[in-house]
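INFO  loader      accepted 1 record
INFO  loader      residues=80
INFO  predictor   begin
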Amino acid sequence: MVFGKRRWPEQHFLRVAIATIAFGLVYTVFSEWLNVDIRRTWIYKESMPRLPWPGTGLTPALQWLIVPALRFWFARKARS
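INFO  predictor   done
INFO  writer      dumping tokens
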């Protein structure tokens, strides 16, 4: 609703996709930081690859990049 217009997805498809993925990634990084470092409600195993900054697990970050990107790609392909 914020980034799209009335004619979405015909117009501004990429803008909405990028904003959605960016918001999800930022929320994931924040949530992981909050729950691992501040609340200490879970911990990463030593074998879990982590991003250098801010220390978020690589898997959750990649999940928020890959899964929505694929879904937007399939949605765009289905519309054409």
